[in-house]
Amino acid sequence: MSNDAAAATATTPTSTTAKPAASPEASPHGLGASLASTHAPAKTEGTFPYAADLWAEGLLWAGILRSPHPHARIVSIDTTHAREMPGVRAVVTHEDVPGAAVHGRGSADRPVFASEVVRHHGEPIAAVAADHPDTARMAAAAVIVEYEVLDPVTDPEKAFEAEPLHPDGNLIRHIPLRHGDPEAAGEIVVDGLYRIGRQDPAPIGAEAGLAVPRPDGGVELYVASTDPHADRDTAAAVYGLEPDRVKVVVTGVPGATADREDPGFQLPLGLLALKTGCPVKLTATREESFLGHAHRHPTLLRYRHHADAEGRLVKVEAQILLDAGAYADTSSQALAAAVSFACGPYAVPNAFIEGWAVRTNNPPSGHVRGEGAMQVCAAYEAQMDKLAKKLGVDPAELRLRNVMGTGDVLPTGQTVTCPAPVAELLTAVRDSPLPPLPKDSPEDEWVLPGGPEGAGEPGAVRRGVGYGVGMVHMLGAEGADEVSTATVRVQDGVATVLCAAVETGQGFSTLARQIVQETLGIDEVHVASVDTDQPPAGPGCRGRHTWVSGGAVERAAKMVRTQLLQPLAHKFGMSAELLQITDGKITSYDGVLSTTVTEAMDGKELWATAQCRPHPTEPLDDTGQGDAFVGLAFCAIRAVVDVDIELGSVRVVELAVAQDVGRVLNPAQLRTRIEAGVTQGVGAALTENLRTPRGLVRHPDLTGYALPTALDAPDIRIVKLVEERDVVAPFGAKSVSAVPVVTSPAAVASAVRAATGRPVNRLPIRPQAAVVTS
């Protein structure tokens, strides 16, 4: 992108979008078609405007000084040398924050800049604006901070007895779930202790942003936000401004599987722009990304399952401890999901779960796909494997004896009213043909664990088959007000959708086009770019935008449809319900009326605005009971792995997936989302673990943090998609991205257990856990 083009993008945002991509077949149209992604042409051609591409006249560059210690008292901060460096225009610390000194997504407990104490490695202390990025970085490093280093609390179990790390204390939330008879016991009992590591969302695109001061004393932030209105309100509070004087413009989001941007660098950008009166840009290094944004909660889980002699579950007892890191963020919500789904998609008459989220001096944890549900899935599925082994029952058969269905009750007391075809999903993957065994020949050695040079001897390779069954909740929970607003405008045969739902790769902009095409019969549909001048649509997570924002678009489109059809119906003396729109033509049931949408419009502009708000939920009470969730989605995965039992290397041969999707709205897009979720789960199972010894982030880069690549991705076969519509959801569709992330790590671990006979009680799986010594 040229500088001029980027400058236009940064300073004069417009509501323009790419036109629908051409299809080699007859134009795919409406819901159920595999319509191409709105942004695909621009991304493949390299013209898509990411935040890192932005530019503005008179641009300054930002640098941020971050703490090298996980825990220390700040004795003094001296910015003199930094301010005196040539090219430096401003230096800001906690003393320069005019409004709220703290912020946070769940609760406001995280300082914009550390003032008296630093609580995690990488916490921001000061920010610099300079006329060159190298100058900004050097000036940030020139800020002299005198620390009194303190012992970090990095073990979440020790956080209960440690001195308070924060004015709000170390305990963020405790949920004691009580369901059924505490005296209930089974003939068969199995115990387990499990640990889940710290997974980073690892956004491939650089985290970047641009702040531009406004003539009215406000500021505009150009960032890849996934929740622009929440970010605007946070920024306004920090800057001491009214929300209408802060505008967040969403630039091209290079994919998001979590909270995409770290407020720890967004907020200093605006402060620097307001202080200097100049646009200020920051493109975070990979190290800054690892240090700044939130990660998946490392979790310690203790389980005890009781079953009768036939393997039917009688009671589940569990203790779940989430390491929230230094600040609360979304840990309360993650804990609610972990506790609520601690028994999995199984019918359990008695459950007693203790859940805690605590502060430590580790990096902050927060929203990552399937938070809470992924950790407990790995544990309860390991318990089901132990139970099957102790009973001498096939692992799939044991699961089938216990799966829940529609009408069953969750341990929270909530009745499952949505479709829950868990038995159908598990049966589909169990009965799917297994992949062929590898051949013992030199030309086929590449299929062995570790790649071409991996396995020492083919005879050391063992194959295992395992299962995972998972569940997630959709939308927000525990009384969250889920609402989205959308406007549909039609003029000259072209429809435009205005909705602040951010396209993060989940396909909302494509879905919005399909909804309007389906409802109005108009092929050319544009989706406007997002900023906070539009009404809020909420965060892009847990399938929200498919349900809530898609529902708002559908309602607005139906209102426009009524405006279009009612005059025609009145003219011909019939009900508007007797008219239909197909492929841009309006026809009546009897064939008397036949005209095009363009002719019926007659040059008029029609528009409507609508909201979608799902039915309310309620917080969990003091015993973990309550109707906390709007809807649930389920998935079953069978994993086939090859394990070198001498080296401990693991190759995932195949993952067979069956998923409860409600309704397929875009087949190609849906399958891609499932495959991506499965692959992310494989990373959590085998390679992804952000190591933080004594609170220090080790190897914060993509060399030290091992993401699965295309060569690591296994064969993924989607063997069944169950389309049983959820009647309370718009279109009947369910969220599809998170539940395979939740389920695939458990399935891979189950398969490694089957291959090695080892317990495999930690994710990611360490090589030594897969070594068989005798």
UniProtKB/TrEMBL annotation:
<dbReference type="InterPro" id="IPR037165">
    <property type="entry name" value="AldOxase/xan_DH_Mopterin-bd_sf"/>
</dbReference>
<dbReference type="GO" id="GO:0016491">
    <property type="term" value="F:oxidoreductase activity"/>
</dbReference>
<dbReference type="Pfam" id="PF20256">
    <property type="entry name" value="MoCoBD_2"/>
</dbReference>
<protein>
    <submittedName>
        <fullName>Molybdopterin-dependent oxidoreductase</fullName>
    </submittedName>
</protein>
<dbReference type="InterPro" id="IPR036856">
    <property type="entry name" value="Ald_Oxase/Xan_DH_a/b_sf"/>
</dbReference>
<dbReference type="InterPro" id="IPR008274">
    <property type="entry name" value="AldOxase/xan_DH_MoCoBD1"/>
</dbReference>
<dbReference type="InterPro" id="IPR046867">
    <property type="entry name" value="AldOxase/xan_DH_MoCoBD2"/>
</dbReference>
<dbReference type="Pfam" id="PF01315">
    <property type="entry name" value="Ald_Xan_dh_C"/>
</dbReference>
<dbReference type="GO" id="GO:0005506">
    <property type="term" value="F:iron ion binding"/>
</dbReference>
<dbReference type="InterPro" id="IPR016208">
    <property type="entry name" value="Ald_Oxase/xanthine_DH-like"/>
</dbReference>
<dbReference type="Pfam" id="PF02738">
    <property type="entry name" value="MoCoBD_1"/>
</dbReference>
<feature type="domain" description="Aldehyde oxidase/xanthine dehydrogenase a/b hammerhead">
    <location>
        <begin position="45"/>
        <end position="151"/>
    </location>
</feature>
<feature type="region of interest" description="Disordered">
    <location>
        <begin position="1"/>
        <end position="38"/>
    </location>
</feature>
<feature type="compositionally biased region" description="Low complexity">
    <location>
        <begin position="1"/>
        <end position="28"/>
    </location>
</feature>
<dbReference type="InterPro" id="IPR000674">
    <property type="entry name" value="Ald_Oxase/Xan_DH_a/b"/>
</dbReference>
